[in-house]
């Protein structure tokens, strides 16, 4: 996710001066390791990936504001810590329906006020709590009085354990089928073969011993029924895991068996809605709070021309407006999607701004790039946009498919029978 400053004047016109300053500062702070106290990762890219992965696995991600190194654009850097570092030995938790009124208390190592707002955080090994003003605590809230997150996979742990056991059974059974061949004698033969006896007449039973008869051994092989027994159970458990996490089976495993193009397209649409919810949660609980702290530090340290600290404190929302854009998203069938989008825009059911934003493209940047391209082509005396001849694709019907298949079969037969007289 990339921030795009959207500061406007009180007349609701874009403040290009402030936006340009914020954009330059953000590029330096977030696209380098300057924001990271450990100096290991940038915010855009590895920092966001690690934060979201930690949130999925642990339920929460916590960032602690610390003093940045000399030469940083703002005096703040961020330390990403595990939620396990919260000190729950300080807890005084009481459920609100067990008391007559709201009350300040400590829950999971978090001091909250009577309305449930975090005041400060207790960390293990630290004698005093850290103010909530220095903390960014991001998690997906599922209940009103929930103060820490829940790992995404909690609901499907039993299914994961079952799948692990089935995987192990699958491997063991496959190895057994691959390695063991039993050579059984006929009913009239002695069994086991006397050659397998040692000098004292004891049959040697070493690992992977093959029993065989003196004459005409019959080969008996264990039936390969892994695909009929274990594989369906594995598939069922994989479905359980995906549904428990709220993610499509197709998306996770890329298993397109018995799935046509229409079903895959519907799956993509539903998954896009699900990921939009997750993306919006991540923006509101992680990205935007980080941006607010960044702009606040710039303004208070006097690095925003035309914006004094006093002016910012009086109306911080006015200067922290921001849009978060993601990387462009492709399509499985671009021609059909583009045609549908063009029809929606022409019918005024959708705007070009919304369509570009859904693909991770900012319309302002897009228009500027188009303007630059037009000027370059015009200066070179070239036509814009350049014309490209796109070959027409003929529609394929079921009859065409059958005809093509029959032609292929006839061609193969002819190739095999050429020069064979009556067989041609």
Structure, explained:
With 424 residues, the protein is of the alpha+beta class. 44% of the residues lie in helices and 11% in strands. It has helices at 16-30, 43-58, 157-179, 226-245, 249-253, 261-300, 309-314, 316-319, 334-346, 352-358, 363-379, 398-417, and strands spanning 2-5, 60-67, 76-81, 105-107, 110-112, 118-121, 130-131, 135-139, 181-184, 218-221, 322-325. Strand 5 and strand 6 form a beta hairpin. Helix 3 runs antiparallel to helix 4. It is flat, with a radius of gyration of 33 Å.
Topology:
Blueprint: E1 2-5, H1 16-30, H2 43-58, E2 60-67, E3 76-81, E4 105-107, E5 110-112, E6 118-121, E7 130-131, E8 135-139, H3 157-179, E9 181-184, E10 218-221, H4 226-245, H5 249-253, H6 261-300, H7 309-314, H8 316-319, E11 322-325, H9 334-346, H10 352-358, H11 363-379, H12 398-417
Helix pairs in contact: 3-4
């Amino acid at each position: 996710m990339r921030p795009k400053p959207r500061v406007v004047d009180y007349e609701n016109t874009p403040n290009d001066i402030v936006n340009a300053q914020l954009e330059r500062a953000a590029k330096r702070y977030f696209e380098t390791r300057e924001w990271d106290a450990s100096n290991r990762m940038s915010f855009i890219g590895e920092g966001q990936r690690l934060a979201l992965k930690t949130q999925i696995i642990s339920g929460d991600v916590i960032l602690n504001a610390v003093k940045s190194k000399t030469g940083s654009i703002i005096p703040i850097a961020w330390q990403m810590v595990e939620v396990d570092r919260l000190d729950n030995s300080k807890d005084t938790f009481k459920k609100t329906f067990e008391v007559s009124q709201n009350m300040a208390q400590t829950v999971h190592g978090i001091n909250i006020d009577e309305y449930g707002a975090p005041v400060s955080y207790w960390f293990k090994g630290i004698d005093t709590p850290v103010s909530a003003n220095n903390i960014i605590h991001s998690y997906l809230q599922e209940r009103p009085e929930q103060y820490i997150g829940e790992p995404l996979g909690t609901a499907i742990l039993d299914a994961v354990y079952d799948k692990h056991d089935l995987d192990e059974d699958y491997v063991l059974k496959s190895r057994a089928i691959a390695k063991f061949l039993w050579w059984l004698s006929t009913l009239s033969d002695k069994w086991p073969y006397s050659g397998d006896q040692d000098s004292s007449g004891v049959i040697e039973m070493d690992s992977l011993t093959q029993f065989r008869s003196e004459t005409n051994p019959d080969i008996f092989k264990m039936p390969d029924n892994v695909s009929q027994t274990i594989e369906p159970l594995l598939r069922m458990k994989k479905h359980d895991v995906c549904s428990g996490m709220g993610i499509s089976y197709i998306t996770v495993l890329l298993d397109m068996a018995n799935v046509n193009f229409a079903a895959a397209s519907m799956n993509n649409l539903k998954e896009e809605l699900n990921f939009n919810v997750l993306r919006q949660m991540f923006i509101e609980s992680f990205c935007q709070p980080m941006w607010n702290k960044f702009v606040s530090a710039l303004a208070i340290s006097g690095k925003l021309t035309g914006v004094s600290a006093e002016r910012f404190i009086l109306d911080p929302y006015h200067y922290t407006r921001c849009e978060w854009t993601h990387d462009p998203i492709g399509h499985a069938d671009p021609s059909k999607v583009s045609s549908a989008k063009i029809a929606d825009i022409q019918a005024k059911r959708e705007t070009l701004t919304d369509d570009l934003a859904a693909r991770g493209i900012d319309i302002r940047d897009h228009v500027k790039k188009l303007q630059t391209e037009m000027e370059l082509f015009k200066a070179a005396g070239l036509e814009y946009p350049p014309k490209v001849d796109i070959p027409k694709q003929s529609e394929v019907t079921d009859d065409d498919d059958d005809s093509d298949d029959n032609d292929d079969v006839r061609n193969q037969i002819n190739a095999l029978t050429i020069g064979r007289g009556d067989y041609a």
